[in-house]
Amino acid sequence: MGSLFGAKPIRPVAFGGVRELEEALAGFRKGESGQLEALLSHPRANHRYFFAFEAAEVVERPLVEAWANQYPDHLPALLLKAANGLTWAWQARGNQAASRTSAEQFLGFEDRLKVVAHDLQELERRLPQDPNPLALQIILAKAQNWPGPARRQLFERAVALEPDHYPAHRNYLDGLLMKWGGDHRQAADFALQAARGAAQGSDLGCLVFVAYLEQWLYHQAFERQPALAAEFCQRHDVVATTREVYSRWAASPDWPGAPEARNHAAMWLFLCGQKDLLRQELKALGPRLRESPWDYLGQPAEVFARARKYAGA
Question: N vs C: which end of the chain shows fewer Cβ within 10 Å?
Answer without folding.
Answer: C
